[in-house]
Amino acid sequence: MQHAKFKSMMDGTTEEFAKISKWEADYAKKTLVRNIVEELKRLDIESPYPVTRYEHSLQSATRAYRDGADEEVIVAALLHDIGDNLAMHNHTEMAVSILKPYISEKTLWLVEKHAIFQGYYFWHHLGKDRNARDQYKDHPWYDDCVHFCEHYDQAAFDPDYDTLKLDFFMPMIEKIFSRKPYSQTT
């Protein structure tokens, strides 16, 4: 591989940045899915929940699949908590950052807001407002996020559930992340 000659980006040439951009695009095609899957598998650690966060992710995706959700929502259900190890208190932001270039605004909104909507099921046990999601009551995707959380997220802690394995979801992951970045619409 031939490296750029500049020592400061402001000294780079159009030709150098064209080569760099091509290399980055090729590298992303080769490694993006692998890196995402590796991070997802890192959720398979000890947990106070009835299942690991990895199993929760697979179960959420399985529930979305069995509910007839489209592939984009299934992959979003699989990856909605991918940031838990590195950004426990703002994991949704990490998931959004990973998914944003490849999914629609609607599905991205579901991932972005799922933590607030998920709060409906347990925040009252912690002295918090379980109805915080109501601030979005007039949003066109409110009911979609309620459905996402009720049927895929909050219900996905059953150690006896017949959860599909990661291999089942790999073609969907590869398809979503092979899309041209930022080409999705609502």
Strand and helix map with partners:
Layout: H1 14-41, H2 53-66, H3 71-79, H4 91-99, H5 105-118, H6 142-153, H7 166-176
Helix pairs in contact: 2-3, 2-6, 3-5, 3-7, 4-5, 5-6
Characterization of the model:
- The chain has 186 residues and is mainly alpha-helical.
- It has one domain (14-176): Hypothetical protein af1432 (Orthogonal Bundle), CATH 1.10.3210.
- It contains 7 helices and no strands.
- It has helices at residues 14-41, 53-66, 71-79, 91-99, 105-118, 142-153, 166-176.
- Helix 3 packs across helix 5 and helix 5 (105-118) packs across helix 6.
- The mean pLDDT is 94.
- Proportion of strand residues: under 5%
* CATH architecture term: Orthogonal Bundle
CATH domain topology: Hypothetical protein af1432
The top level CATH class name: Mainly Alpha
Estimated helix fraction: 40-55%
Number of strands: 0
What spatial form do the alpha-carbon principal axes imply?
A: globular
**The biggest beta sheet, please?**
none
Low-confidence stretches: none
What value does the average pLDDT take?
A: 94
Question: What is the terminal-to-terminal distance?
Answer: 39 Å
Q: Could you say which structural class the secondary elements and strand pairing correspond to?
A: mainly alpha
**Secondary structure tally, helices:** 7
**Number of separate structural domains:** 1
